[in-house]
Design goal:
- This protein is of the alpha/beta class.
- It has 16 helices and 24 strands.
- It folds into two domains: about 350 residues, FAD/NAD(P)-binding domain (3-Layer(bba) Sandwich), CATH 3.50.50; about 210 residues, 3-Layer(bba) Sandwich (FAD/NAD(P)-binding domain).
- α1 packs across α12.
- The longest helix is centred in the C-terminal third of the chain and has 21 residues.
């Protein structure tokens, strides 16, 4: 059965979120017994060495993708494109980071137990008992901890499609999760590669497979789909080197109707006045038109290339998407890739059969088919109690009616503030049978007792969909540290529920299919981090009204927050 270890804090996940949470807890509790568990065999989560490959690029840029206390060395020019860089530099940075941070003679790396999968979590006698299993030896190990930090991420459990006939298929079936560690691009036995899915991960695998000299087919679902992803040029404008820098300004954040940006004369003009919404509609239409024009989806003599055109306008974010790191992406696809639209019928020896009759030659099938929730070590009842997604049927009649009333009030408020959200385009919306996340500030459970200070023993880090996790999890780490230590005052449970209902209702209206889980924040990174820091009463990250509005937010802007936090909340700490 394995042994039992008692620790002060247990962190589940050794990616960006878990590293940030463990590091800041140790900054403020340097002699604390902290252990980090990760189901993978290397550190870094999405950005670990197993999942990476040489031509895998980040969607973030130099100076924005790092923690505030340790700059990432600038990559060489050959690994840069408009300040975006190859993901292997984030991998190296995270590994250097866990080696360079030491507390009481023990580095962050020393505290990580890899290839260790959490099996179950139980609340016993006021603490948490966590049962884990080593994935190679199957040896079980039990941890008992007073405080539990769940940082398991959104992209750790692959979602594999149903593939009838797979037992007779002679090739490999590989999810994006295993693409980087596979030999499909170099194996002479793999000549025909088929990629499933229309998102950014699928697009990356399509491109890399073509560049490796393979014959590539790209299969998009035909029914019950939000359509292929929206892929945008990463080029900047004016003083901004790239589109990401533009998106990391507070001004750009106001161009979308968001409850995270606050309400003032400017946002009321843009989203509630007579002329503002028309102005914004024109702006987003121009972005949409430019992206479609650059892709040139209506190319002549290119079969099915037009099927790569997104089904919904870019404003609504109903499908997946991302910034392009390769200038020749669309030309490469048009010249070299066979695009199919169809649902899977079955796999055969070396063929993927689609229900429409197409037969796709396939030696290897690559699946860019998304991810399951990584919270499977919680039971459905625990999910209900903690505010995590769970089957709607699992709610009590009282809970269901209470949330329905709260969301009805919230919906009226959302539409009164942002009337344009009342009229989404006629697009496919993914059905769901689960509740959304209902975590206060997207990190902590609501208190069922009516007193949020009675049980501050569990937090969730990184369970939000954002474009840059570094500033988000750094601010979440500060917020949750104050929360776990009972130093952060929270509103009443009733007010917490109203806040949650307002966000989840707005999220469904704003992001359609992507908003159903209530954790989408595509354009809300700055608004969200500002909210967390405002709760804490911290402001050293601000740099004057003009720069606050027009300047990009950089990692270095958060450099003074640790000292400000420790002084305000009475932490002593020590030098590392």
């Amino acid at each position: 059965m394995g042994d039992v270890s008692e620790v002060d804090v247990l962190v589940i996940g050794a990616g960006i979120s878990g590293i940030s949470a463990a590091k800041f807890w140790l900054d403020t509790h340097f002699d604390s017994r902290v252990v980090i568990l990760d189901r993978d065999n290397c550190i870094g989560g999405t950005w670990n060495s197993r999942r990476g490959y040489d031509t895998f690029w980040t969607q973030w840029t130099v100076g924005t993708a790092e923690f505030s206390d340790q700059p990432m060395p600038r990559p060489p020019d050959e690994d840069l494109y408009l300040e975006f860089f190859k993901a292997k530099h984030t991998t190296k940075y995270l590994n250097d980071y866990v080696d360079s941070h030491s507390y009481s003679g023990q580095t962050l790396r020393n505290r990580v137990r890899l290839s260790t999968e959490v099996q179950s979590v139980q609340k016993i006698d006021g603490g948490w008992t966590v049962l884990s299993k080593e994935r190679e030896t199957l040896v079980q190990h039990t941890f008992q901890t007073a405080k539990l930090i769940v940082a398991s991420g959104l992209t750790s459990i692959p979602n594999m499609p149903s593939l009838p006939g797979i037992e007779g298929f002679l090739g490999q079936v590989i999810h994006q999760d295993g693409f980087g560690s596979s030999d499909v691009l170099t194996s002479p036995d793999v000549k025909n590669i088929t990629v499933l899915g229309g998102g950014k991960s699928s697009a990356d695998m399509v491109y890399e497979s073509v560049k490796a000299g393979k014959a590539v087919s790209w299969v998009l679902e035909a029914t019950d789909t939000t359509g292929p992803g929206f892929f945008l040029s990463p080029k900047g404008a004016g003083p901004y080197k790239n589109a990401f820098e533009i998106g990391m300004t507070r001004l750009a954040g106001t161009f979308t109707p968001s409850i995270m940006n606050g309400t003032n004369w400017w946002t009321r003009f843009l989203h509630s006045s007579k002329y503002g919404p028309k102005l914004m509609a024109g702006f987003w239409d121009s972005v949409d038109t430019k992206a479609r024009t650059e892709a040139d989806y209506q190319r002549k003599n290119v079969q099915n290339f037009d099927k790569l055109s997104p089904h919904s306008p870019i404003f609504w974010q109903n499908c997946t998407g991302g910034l392009l790191n390769h200038q020749d992406f669309f030309d490469t696809v048009a010249d070299n890739v066979r695009v199919y639209v169809g649902d899977i019928d079955r796999l055969d020896k070396d063929v993927l059969h689609l229900k429409g009759g197409d037969q796709v030659p396939t030696d290897t099938l690559l699946c860019g088919t998304g991810w399951h929730l990584s919270l499977q070590f919680f039971s459905e009842e625990q999910c209900r109690q903690l505010g995590l997604p769970h089957p709607v049927d699992n709610e009590t009649p009282g809970e269901e009616s209470n949330w329905a009333a709260l969301e009805a009030d919230a919906d009226a408020k959302v539409l009164a503030t942002f009337p344009q959200l009342a009229n989404p385009p006629p697009v496919f919306i993914k059905p769901t049978t689960e509740t959304p996340y209902r975590l206060y500030r997207h990190v902590v459970p609501l208190s069922e007792s009516g007193d949020a200070s009675k049980d501050r023993s569990i937090v969730f880090i990184g369970q939000v969909g954002v474009g840059n996790y570094f500033p988000v999890v750094e601010c979440q780490a500060l917020w949750t540290t104050a929360y776990l230590d009972g130093k952060l005052e929270l509103p009443s449970v009733e007010e917490q529920k109203k806040e949650v209902a307002l966000f989840t209702t707005w999220c469904r209206r704003r992001y359609l299919s992507n908003g159903r889980r209530g954790n989408a924040m595509t354009f809300e990174v700055i608004g969200y981090t500002d909210t967390l820091l405002r709760d804490l009463g911290l402001h050293s990250n601000r740099k004057g009204w003009f720069k606050d509005i027009f300047s990009s937010v950089w990692a270095r802007d958060f450099r003074g927050l640790k000292a400000e936090f420790m002084e305000k909340y009475g932490y002593n700490g020590i030098e590392e």
